[in-house]
Amino acid sequence: MNRNSVYILEDRGLLYINGDDAKEFLQNIITNNIENVSDDRSCFSALLTPQGKYLYDFIIIKHKSGYFLDCEKKVIENLYKQLNLYKLRSKVDILNLSNEFVVANLTKEKFLELQNSKSEIGFTIKFREDPILLDPRSDKLGARIVINLEKLYLSIKKLGLKVSDVNEYYNYSHELGIAQIDTNNLQNKIFGIECNFEELNGIDFKKGCYVGQENTARIKLKDKLNKRLFAIKVLDGVISSEEITYEDKNIGKLLINNKNPFGLFKLENKNFNFDADLRCGNAKIKALKPNWI
User: Fold this and answer.
1) Which of the 8 DSSP states describes residue 193?
2) What are the structural domains, with CATH classification, of the chain?
3) pTM for the whole thing?
4) Could you report the per-residue pLDDT of 194-234, keeping only the tens digit for each?
């Protein structure tokens, strides 16, 4: 990605969690530790089912007296409803600000040119009063800015950036093995820990209880992680099945089927052969090896 490129992520939505009990409310339900989120630190986290299955993932950013949740826009209404179910009598306000704010991505190199920035994942500064942060999942994804729509293009101009094709960003995210599009297809089909959330800094195993914590901790502590979500590259043909095979043996299942597909793959003795030519229906495919393997 070009150093001066900016990618406007119109498919991202924003919830704002505010109120006297906002911190405690989030701490009790999310996989990461809200105590680590501050004006200069953001985090990646998720909401799981009580069984530890994936529901939603999001980036949490401190903003004024509350928190932004940056998540895929197509699931934001359902996430809003889910959070309200957990709210009960908590003094918490949950607002959908997706029509007022937008998320944009810029390169790590550009972020490090800004005053007070640091090369630390999740590190957050302000630019014209808007939070800008180095992606807490991987600094290879660059930085994100959460900004009021009315200020977007003026800020882009002041940063000396040029709007580029957002597909460049998502293709690169796919190469890194980080799913961001059609994540609703993962819901209830995969454990959160199988989504590589530990490697993407999305789970704190020391924070204590949260929704889905028991199974997540059991898989980790008993070394039972035998499946993982990997990006898929189509080498030839067209994907026409959910079943992924190697030498006629089932080794996985397609979960996200778009131009940047992902599948859940079985591991053998904690390892996976990324050089193997696999089949998915009529397509010849291979699993992409992420940099954290």
Assistant:
1) G
2) 5-175 (3.30.1360.120), 183-287 (2.40.30.160)
3) 0.96
4) 999 999 999 999 999 999 999 999 999 999 999 999 999 99
